[in-house]
UniProtKB/TrEMBL annotation:
Keyword annotations of the record: Signal
Pfam families documented for this protein: PD40 (PF07676)
Alphabetical list of InterPro entries matching this protein: 6-blade_b-propeller_TolB-like, WD40
Protein name as catalogued: Uncharacterized protein
Leader peptide range in chain numbering: 1-22
Species per Swiss-Prot/TrEMBL record: Crenothrix polyspora
Superkingdom per UniProt: Bacteria
Family according to the record: Belongs to the TolB family.
Amino acid sequence: MKTLLILPIIVSSLMASFTSYAQCTSSPVLQSDSKFPQSLRGRLIYHSYSDYGSGSSNLFLKNFRTNTLVQLNQASWNIEDPMNAHFSPNGRYIVFMGKQNTRWNIFIWKPGSSLAPINLTNHTQDSSDVSEDPKFSPDGNYIVYKNNADIVLSRLTFANPDAPLLGTSSRLTNNGYDTEESMPYFSTNGKSVFYSQGAGANSDIYRVNFKIKYNQLVADTPSLVTGKEGLSEYYPVTKNNALFFVSWKDALTKMDQIYWYLPNLQGQPVELSLNDCNADNSDPAPIDNANIFFSSNRGDKFYRLYVGNIYTGKVWSMSNLGVNEAQKHQLGASYTNTR
């Protein structure tokens, strides 16, 4: 039977005082563009494709300060299907996954650079290896990613700021494809990694604590964070000591809903009211203490990007800002307010 581990997390300013559990919203009404959150002055990166693995994925950067939208990847990169980008804490770099030499690799790039992205994992892999889902650590010195169904922690070296390289790598999990682990994300303090373990109805959110002593990784035994019987739980993301993740609302409809983890409510995940009950809602990307980007196929078969308030449930579409491309999915948002 699945159980729930109550995490010893200190609730920060992100956590509001809830008197009852939130619920998804049926037939939600979008907010007026004139009331769009004014705190959005940073940069958003996301990918857009017609179908996963179709070779149609492109990376886009929306700059809210200059109100510009540009496609980042170019044919000269020789990278197929770039996606799932993540900003470094200082906003100077992104890491993302893409295909090169017929397999998935992890790349790093400085937005605005005339140089092509650096393939970080090409030298670490044989012809059957697959590396995906990269995320920066809070200090920007490490990345965590999925490699052959395990979670890997790697140090970055910045001797040449225009060409960072991958240094020492260690596995936080080491069971291969026997039990698949994916979508890793660092805790706010950088001492743990959350990830999804399993597939489909058997996927749950786990956490592994680790220390690095004398350049050696010491990892604890992974522990279950949240796992509801028969429900898929995946895509963990952290912000100010809060944990967001995606879960099926129920096993019948299998509609994806975004939840956050509130330790002050007996350790029970809370369903956000920004969710559309009749649609899939996924890929949360925190903006500030109140708002997140997320993707939803509400009213459409394609995923569009939205901004939602985690307290009020108010939702704004990104379509009038030129972000949502017709006949394509917009997914994998990452946001930075740093320059």
